[in-house]
């Protein structure tokens, strides 16, 4: 969809004639309502929407196209309103958007964004953008939150078993989710959200997005790695040769190469080949060869592989009393990894005195696709209306049938009290203390967060959570 006038729900095309006649401005906010997934949300993704959509003027051709589509579709079309935006605002949306700094970890129920129309002829515009704005926020923020939850589990495991947890953690969860999402844009936004917390990815749209929207020079990295087709094309009788070719092509001093090794029998491949016929080539290569089991129990299988590798390659015991394999050999577990299985596997590694240094984790659809807007109950709701007599009146909902869907009344603010962010009414605080700061106004970007700034903010929150 390239016409922003059609990037909304059909029913919103009729809302311009539904507000009361005294309406001049509408204020609305976005939050992740209290939910069963996470007490906090890692806010991320707004800047991509601002730059991609709101900094691009609408055109007369888009108005004409949207008018024709709406007529055929059976809904009204606010041609006069869009024409005013085109002629009086150069095609740029007359809105003010305030937001928390991206990378902020905010409690659920705390507003992340607040939107208000600046042209008083257009109170309908604030909530008209809900559809595109909300999906630009809920998805990357939910992925970023899930990724951070995984990072906390892994980091705690590293603190218990690694001599250098801070250097280890950036590459401990690798994104394999590009093929499992619904669109290239989802891969870009979700993959980029994961990169707020980690530096390992195979989603190339994500590194492009981080560069385009947040100025990252290179946000994510990968290594040469085998897939089943490149291994099984050699045939079962040449499995060893397939692995040997990987060493010949990619194993050099200081390099890493990952080899999927379960095409036929993971235990045979590890015992007979990696710990047998190819062992000396691995040791002499100067590289680190990463063995990838890709089937079986996601906890028991990698633990079994580690034990086999230890019996052959050996290693050392670090200062935490945990076993660290010979640096020539490592394991990555990318199959069946979820928040639950990562927690279980890390727990077993710690219990069995394995350093988490020995293993990396990978996630695909579980990271980028197996979530939705209801995972963290994201919503955008109107909270105030400015009337013709220049007064703001409260706007809210409070359904008897579901009190959990009650919305906030009055223009919102976010304040910090006792080190934690809280929602407040804007008219009850000193506006200077409001953590919601203008990021967009009338076609101008007011704040341009760099990817490094977002990452630093998220890393700071992780350090606080672990220290608490």
UniProtKB/TrEMBL annotation:
Pfam families: NAMPT_N (PF18127), NAPRTase (PF04095). It catalyses: beta-nicotinamide D-ribonucleotide + diphosphate = 5-phospho-alpha-D-ribose 1-diphosphate + nicotinamide + H(+). Residues 5-97 form the Nicotinamide phosphoribosyltransferase N-terminal domain. Pathway: Cofactor biosynthesis; NAD(+) biosynthesis; nicotinamide D-ribonucleotide from 5-phospho-alpha-D-ribose 1-diphosphate and nicotinamide: step 1/1. One of its GO terms (molecular function) is glycosyltransferase activity. InterPro entries: Aldolase_TIM (IPR013785), DUF5598 (IPR041529), N/Namide_PRibTrfase (IPR041525), Nicotinamide_PRibTrfase (IPR016471), Nicotinate_pribotase-like_C (IPR036068). Residues 171-426 form the Nicotinate/nicotinamide phosphoribosyltransferase domain. Keywords: Glycosyltransferase, Ligase, Pyridine nucleotide biosynthesis, Transferase. Its EC number is 2.4.2.12. NCBIfam families: PRK09198.1. Belongs to the NAPRTase family. This is Nicotinamide phosphoribosyltransferase. It comes from Roseibium sediminicola. The lineage of its organism: Bacteria, Pseudomonadati, Pseudomonadota, Alphaproteobacteria, Hyphomicrobiales.
């Amino acid at each position: 969809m390239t016409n922003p006038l059609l990037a909304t729900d059909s029913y919103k095309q009729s809302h311009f004639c539904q507000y009361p006649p005294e309406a001049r401005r509408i204020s609305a906010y976005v939050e992740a309502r209290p939910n069963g997934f996470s007490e906090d949300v890692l806010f991320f993704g707004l800047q991509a929407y601002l730059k991609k959509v709101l900094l691009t003027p609408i055109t007369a051709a888009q108005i004409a196209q949207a008018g024709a589509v709406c007529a055929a579709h059976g809904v009204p079309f606010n041609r006069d309103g869009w024409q005013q935006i085109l002629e009086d605002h150069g095609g740029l949306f007359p809105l003010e958007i305030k937001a928390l700094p991206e990378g902020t970890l905010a409690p659920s129920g705390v507003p992340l964004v607040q939107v208000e129309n600046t042209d008083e002829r257009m109170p309908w515009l604030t909530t008209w953008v809900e559809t595109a704005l909300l999906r630009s926020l809920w998805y990357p923020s939910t992925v970023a939150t899930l990724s951070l939850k995984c990072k906390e589990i892994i980091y705690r495991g590293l603190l218990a078993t690694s001599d250098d947890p801070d250097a280890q953690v950036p590459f401990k969860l690798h994104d394999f989710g590009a093929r499992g999402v619904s669109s290239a844009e989802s891969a870009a936004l979700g993959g980029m959200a994961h990169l707020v917390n980690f530096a390992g990815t195979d989603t190339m749209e994500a590194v492009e997005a981080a560069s385009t929207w947040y100025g990252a020079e290179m946000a994510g990295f990968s290594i040469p790695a085998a897939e089943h087709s490149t291994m099984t094309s050699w045939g079962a009788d040449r499995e060893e040769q397939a692995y040997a070719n990987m060493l010949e092509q990619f194993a050099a001093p200081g390099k890493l190469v990952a080899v999927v090794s379960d095409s036929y029998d993971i235990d045979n491949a590890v015992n007979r080949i990696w710990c047998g016929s190819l062992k000396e080539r691995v040791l002499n290569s100067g590289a680190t060869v990463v063995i990838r089991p890709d089937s079986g129990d996601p906890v028991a299988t990698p633990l079994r592989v580690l034990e086999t590798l230890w019996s052959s390659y050996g290693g050392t015991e670090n200062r935490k009393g945990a076993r660290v394999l010979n640096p020539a050999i490592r394991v990555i577990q990318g199959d069946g990894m979820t928040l639950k299985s990562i927690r279980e596997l890390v727990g077993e590694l710690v219990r069995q005195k394995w350093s988490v240094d020995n293993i990396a984790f990978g996630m695909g659809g579980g990271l980028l696709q197996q979530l939705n807007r209801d995972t963290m109950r994201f919503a955008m709701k109107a909270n105030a209306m400015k009337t013709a007599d220049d007064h703001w009146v409260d706007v809210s909902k409070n359904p008897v049938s579901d009190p959990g869907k009650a919305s906030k009344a009055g223009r919102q603010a976010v304040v910090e009290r006792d080190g934690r962010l809280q929602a407040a009414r804007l008219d009850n605080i000193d506006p200077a203390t409001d953590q919601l700061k203008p990021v967009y106004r009338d076609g101008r970007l007011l704040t341009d967060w760099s990817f490094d700034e977002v990452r630093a903010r998220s890393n700071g929150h992780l350090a606080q959570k672990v220290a608490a």
